[in-house]
Write a structure and sequence with these properties.
- Helices cover about 45% and strands about 15% of the residues.
- With about 300 residues, it is an alpha/beta fold.
- Helix 5 links the parallel strand 3 and strand 4.
- Helix 6 packs antiparallel against helix 12.
- It starts with a strand and ends with a helix.
- The structure holds ligand FEC.
- Ligand FEC binds next to helix 10.
- Involved in coproporphyrin-dependent heme b biosynthesis. Catalyzes the insertion of ferrous iron into coproporphyrin III to form Fe-coproporphyrin III.
- Its EC number is 4.99.1.9.
- Keywords: Cytoplasm, Heme biosynthesis, Iron, Lyase, Metal-binding, Porphyrin biosynthesis.
- This is Coproporphyrin III ferrochelatase.
Length: about 300
């Protein structure tokens, strides 16, 4: 008999239209509506990015479809459901869809490789509460930041862009690789959160596999709140590198797995504009999106968890 296993695939979520940006932003701000100025600023960022206004929705759809196809080559029948943090279908909607389909056991996974109590932890908390209320036995993948295939695919992406630098006349050793991820409030460090260490571990492993000596880690996309966020921010890092006469920079946003606002605006528009001003050449590694190797990483960690389900 084949066992039916639900998989709740969780992602950040993006608005459905420009009219929906206010509701989305209000959700991110835990029910507090943004000011007219804040709303305009975010709407303008969405309008500025290439690849469609809200590419994260299509990218997540494709990732979930590809994962479902990849998972269903074994004994267990896996059924994937989307659960988004700040947009429809919300995490709770995904769990309810499982209930309607008669799912009694499931695995939850977030499309983000690194664990923080303020990021992946909050997805898991919401999914767990809903699953318990609905009587679904659900286990979670917390992180997969050192999966060998993930390190391998990201190392190959770094190497491919270093080759591109070389083809246009730069010396490979002169390129500074900047690994980055979404910043979080500094207070996570006092809480003993593993986020920063996991990101450094991934960066170190990729650098070592790609044979890169000249690298550093920096933060990006810090929230617009009064409390201090983890730094240095990538824009400050670029200014410092320019002061040290670094001319070539490769951005590797390893905390993200999709093309979306934080990559297409914060890096490709904002950081790129600063790099031109500083007379620097800045390239970025391609996002994983639904790369078959990334799907293989996800299916491997989901299957391993499913085998441990009691
Ligand atoms: O393309 C899109 O439409 C969505 C892009 C997007 C992704 C994303 C990922 C992460 N965030 C994380 C943490 C925070 C914290 C806050 C926060 C705020 C925003 C705002 C927008 C936004 N985030 Fe985001 N994030 C994306 C977009 N994020 C828009 C609101 C305006 C702004 O500050 O720019 C602060 C609010 C709060 O306290 O919740 C914290 C983390 C990730 C990476 C892991 C993940 O994907 O979940 C961490 C994609």
């Amino acid at each position: 008999m084949t066992t039916k296993m639900g998989v709740l695939v969780m992602s950040y979520g993006t608005p459905e239209s420009l009219e929906d940006v206010e509701a989305y932003y209000t959700h991110i701000r835990r029910g507090n509506a943004p000011s007219a100025e804040q709303l305009k600023e975010l709407t303008d960022r969405y309008k500025a990015i290439v690849g469609g206004v809200f590419p994260l929705r299509e990218n997540t759809d494709r990732q979930v479809e590809a994962l479902q196809a990849k998972l269903n080559s074994g004994q267990i029948q896996y059924v994937c459901y989307q659960g988004l943090k700040h947009a429809r279908p919300f995490i709770e909607d995904g769990v309810e869809a499982m209930v309607r389909d008669g799912i009694t056991q499931a695995i939850g996974i977030v499309l983000a490789p690194h664990y923080s109590v303020m990021s992946v932890g909050t997805y898991i908390k919401r999914a767990k509460e809903k699953a318990e209320a609905c009587g679904i036995n659900m286990e979670f993948v917390e992180s997969y930041h050192m999966h060998p295939e993930l390190i391998d695919v990201l190392s190959r992406r770094v190497t491919a862009k270093l080759d591109e630098f070389e083809e246009t006349g730069a010396v490979r050793e002169d390129v500074r690789v900047l690994f980055s991820a979404h910043s979080l409030p500094e207070r996570i460090l006092a809480m003993g959160d593993p986020y920063r260490d996991q990101l450094l571990e991934t960066s170190q492993a990729i650098a070592s596999q790609a044979g890169v000596d000249s690298w550093q880690f920096t933060w990006q996309s810090a929230g617009r709140t009064a409390e201090p966020w983890l730094g240095p921010d990538i824009l400050d890092t670029l200014r410092e590198l320019a002061d040290s006469q670094v001319k070539y920079v490769l951005s590797a946003p390893i905390g993200f797995v999709s093309d979306h606002l934080e990559v297409l605006y914060d890096l490709d528009i904002e950081a790129q504009a600063l790099a031109s001003e500083l007379d620097m050449r800045l390239l970025r590694i391609d996002s994983l999106n639904s790369d078959p190797v990334y799907m293989s990483v996800l299916s491997d960690v989901v299957r391993t968890k499913a085998n441990q389900l009691k």
